[in-house]
Structure formats: structure tokens, C-alpha cells
Amino acid sequence: xxxxxxxxxxxxxxxxxxxxxxxxxxxxxxxxxxxxxxxxxxxxxxxxxxxxxxxxxxxxxxxxxxxxxxxxxxxxxxxxxxxxxxxxxxxxx
Length: 93
Description:
Layout: H1 2-12, H2 21-25, H3 29-45, E1 50-54, H4 62-67, E2 71-75, H5 79-91
Parallel strand pairs: 1-2
């Protein structure tokens, strides 16, 4: 299991293997629909605006949740993904 974890972390620490920032900022329609479905379900759960995103990757979902006023606690195996999302979130408040 440790080797798989290292392989996965190493893979996603490479920028080219991460979700494009352009697609995070301007998601395609299928991603917008997916995110809307997530938001609709979160409203039903009444989570007080707090979300835990395990395996959040480059922030494809987390960034949209932040834009919609959610507080997002984000967990990912890739340190580079965490750093990229943090930079992106700070840049766009």
C-alpha cells in the first residue's frame, strides 16, 4: 500500500497531471452540472456551509464550493495540489 501511495503522490505532484487551472476557473458544462448537484445535496444536508473534500486534487470541486460561500477543509495526498489550490484560493479570495 505504501508504494501505491507514493506512486499516486508522485504522479499528482507533477503539474501536467493536475486538473487545468483554466478548467477550474471556467468549468465545462458537465462540471458545472456536477457541482450544482453537489451544492443541491449539501443544502439538503444542512452542513452549516462546511465541507470536507477528501482527495480534492487540484481543487476542481473545492474552488467552486469556495466561490459559493462554503468553508472547505481540503485533504489530498499531493502536496503540490494542496499548494496550488491554496495559491488559487488566495488569488481569488
